[in-house]
Amino acid sequence: MLGQPSGNESSPRDDAIRLLARREHSRRELAERLAAKGHAHEVIAECLDALAEQGLQSDARFAESFLRSRIQRGQGPMKIRGELERRGIERELIGTAFAESEQAGEGDWFALAGEILARRFTGPGESPRERARRERFLASRGFDFDQVRHALAHAWDSAPDQ
Question: What is the dihedral of CA 133, 136, 137, 142, to 10 degrees?
């Protein structure tokens, strides 16, 4: 029968369950990993539909988990959105995850940018070159122009040594 293991081969479901046991995965990530193991695309689609129906795989849950982990790493909203889109998460689900994060008090991007900047640098920089370095650092982390400007102005306001 199509998609059934023969001998010591594993089924797409077994492989998907093993992957999901380690961490949440998006549907696209699972499909790519299962295809790389040699499973047929039709069987993968059926398997992923069944896992979603059973609540074992959820792009919404993946987006929430991914967002939370990236906030803890100090990444900004632009970078996180881009990474979620690359992992196949629909924009509606991304927007919902961001809204829920902000409601839970996890998505204060201005404060996060300031914290990350203050952790990395001891001050705003004396020269335009040093300030530009700090701007590039935050921009590479995925913070937008307003968040970068706010962080440069306020990152060291509540420093403990002042």
Answer: 170
